[in-house]
Amino acid sequence: MLKAFLAALFLCAPTLAAADDMLIIAHRGASAERPEHTLAAYERAIDKGADYIEPDLVVTKDLVLISRHENNLADTTDVASREEFESRRRDKEIDGQRIAGWFAEDFTLEELRTLRARERIPAIRPANARFNGLYQVPTLEEIVMLVRAKEAETGRTIGLYPELKHPTFFLQAEGIDMVDLLLAELRRLNINPDDSIYIQSFEPSALGRLNQRSDFKLVQLVKPDGGPVDEPDLRYAEMVTPTGLAEVATFADAVGATIPMVLNPDGSPTSLVGDAKAAGLEVHAWTVRPENAFLPAPLKGQGGDAARGNSAALMDMLEVAGVTGVFTDEPAGPDSGN
User: Fold this and answer.
1) Which DSSP category does 264 fall into?
2) Could you tell me the CATH number of the domain that includes residue 249?
3) Looking at residue 334, what is its pLDDT?
């Protein structure tokens, strides 16, 4: 059925060309081409035309916001090979899961400066692994400085799309208020709600506090299963019903939803975009990745998991579905290369 939908999709190509452009959100930077959450990945994404770059934010011991997908540094830095930090290895319960590793909140920024980023999924992105050891873990301030330098160079406006990672964990287990930290840092960096910025989180309580204390555009992240860690009686599935979306609209401006919540298995749109728009919400879909490992079977190319498939068709389906933004690991599309 997906093949039939693709055939219909290509027949309506002139309609697509006339459609409003979707926001292209560089997921962790151009993470299909450089190790994620590095200045090199963000700069690559900007050079490839991304409208927004997406830094996931965690916190150091000395309360500096840095960019890592998780506060566990084990998979994205060389910390496990550093003998001087072997004693920092911990077991922690984060959002109900017991996790072993080295955690950002146990390191000062000066200590983190000695670490180097690594490719998180080298089996699927072996070309990225050639950059292992070259890049430091960036701070939010450094990312903002990069954006401003590239805006001056290109004359384009480049947006920021930060995500607060595990704010309830940081508040309850570490006594660190990420909402306070982020708002204070944005003020210090002279970033205002009128600038091109969305702030996202899976946790509605963090977004609610941001909504009460600021006018930044906010995005409630949702996924097919489970629910927010800060609202144990609430399911994401409930949040994307018409009633749930009306509640989300009281504190957020958009919903960030996984692609299977936006598209049916045959590639046709679900009701989510229409229901969200009826509630006054944008929908941003995540995540388009170019490799076979992440694509539905009809869109896979020849070769194994690391080979590239037809991610362009997936982008077209999302445009037909009416989403206003797409998170992608490859901002320039499938012909961008490494």
Assistant:
1) -
2) 3.20.20.190
3) 63
Stated pTM of the model: 0.93
Model confidence pLDDT, tens digit, residues 48-62: 999 999 999 999 999
Active-site choice (37, 69, 166, 284): 69
Active-site residue, selected from the candidate residues 27, 37, 166, 284: 27
Active site residue 284: no
Question: Looking at the domain assignment, is residue 174 inside a domain?
Answer: yes
Residue 93 lies in a domain: no
Say how far apart CA 126 and CA 326 lie, in whole Å.
25
Task: Assess if residue 335 is contained within a domain.
Answer: no
334 lies in some domain? no
Distance between CA atoms of residues 140 and 159, nearest Å: 13
Q: Grade residue 338 by pLDDT with cuts at 50, 70 and 90.
A: low
The token pair that represents 183 in the structure block: 């708002």
37 noted as active-site residue: no
The residue to which tokens 């941001």 are assigned:
210
- Full domain range(s) for residue 297: 2-73+140-328
The H or E element that residue 309 is part of is none
In the chain, the number of structural domains is 1
